[in-house]
Design brief:
This protein has 113 residues and is α+β, with helices and mostly antiparallel strands. Helices cover 22% and strands 29% of the residues.
């Protein structure tokens, strides 16, 4: 008998993706108080880049019951580290965020865990 997908799952090529599992990876703590982060549903490798004020980010993480990926090895996804904001900064003659230390302020990870 075929496995049935729930309303919050999707049968993809690699199996069922659980849309109830959500991931967040902080990529930058900006000096203006905004948090740049990746948000993924079901698969941490497929994400959107988001930007929220710090308080809104913390509320978002709590409301979505996210799994934080901030503690990962920064080189684990080195081939994916070039982001749209990096291209925009390069085009403007600015330096992109360092892939070795994308989180400028570790205080956020202490507050939200």
């Amino acid at each position: 008998m075929a496995q049935q997908a729930s309303p919050t799952s999707h049968q993809g090529d690699g199996g069922i993706i659980d849309a109830d599992v959500k991931y967040v990876r902080v990529t930058e703590m900006r000096p203006d108080g905004f948090v740049a982060f990746d948000f993924a549903i079901g698969e941490p490798e497929i994400y959107v880049e988001m930007l929220l004020p710090q308080d809104a980010f913390l509320a978002f993480c709590e409301a979505q019951s996210v799994i934080r990926l901030d503690g990962e090895d920064p080189n684990a996804h080195a081939d994916f580290l070039w982001r749209l904001r990096d291209a925009a900064r390069a085009a403007a003659g600015e330096s992109p965020v360092s892939p070795m230390n994308p989180i400028q302020n570790s205080d956020l990870s202490k507050r939200s865990n």
